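pasting for ref
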Amino acid sequence: MKKQQWILVIGAVAVAVALFFIGNTVPDAKPAAANADMADGHSPNDGHNHEAPAAVTIDTVLLQAKKLLTTEDINKLAQLEQTEARGDVKAQQLEKYKQLAKFWDETTHNHTLYHYYTGEAAKLENSEKKLTFAARFFLEEVMASGQPSAFNTWQANQAKELFEKAIEINPANDSAKIAIGACYMFGNISTNPMEGILKVREIAEKKPDNVYAQLVLGLGGLRSGQYDKAIERFTKVVTVQPKNLEAIFHLAETYDRKGDKTNAVVWYQKASDLIKIPEAKKEIEARIKALKS
């Protein structure tokens, strides 16, 4: 297993740990944000012109997904999509979205469209829990991808809209506010990532023990090469949660990238002690050995 692969394996564990908190405290943070000072500061311009990729819409997502359907499934989908709502329009529209979500889940196991229609249904139900359920999927996908793309931008916009709806229901939902900041920081939905950073920093400053806010800012620092700032943020997390695997691993990774072998070994060892996946543990031990040699 290559280094990139075991990072993804460990990242998958981190996702599970982090997403547990989305309704309470924390979702995952595994983002990519090129040329952006995302830890706490500025958004430098690299001096190059970058051509924006073609925008992705729900229509383009559906078009690609339909290519995998059988003729029978295409006919079934057409019937669901063409259902006309009469009488209690809202109730019928809600049922239509639920049926479409079920269809995509059962036919091609298309999680993107399952969560899209689950989110559309949640908007009609005005359910904070269901809105955040769908939103966290899209944000997780953006953060786990590690690379900016038009599709990730579409997903980040989906997440942002759903989280905003959740905040309308519960204005005190700090996790949703931080998640929106993460959408800006890692989803490439704005030319000014500071718009997202400020949203997260505001909560981090008011509530230094907010693990989610510190993780997001730490990941911003890590991805933008601001290692000292990243270390500061991740350290705050492990101070509050000494066994937070995500923060521990990212501390090791940050020290490793910084060239601080001594501290990298310390934190990789802590991660190894917590990791339950044998192959990942083996690769971490190999990295520790390499750093000591």
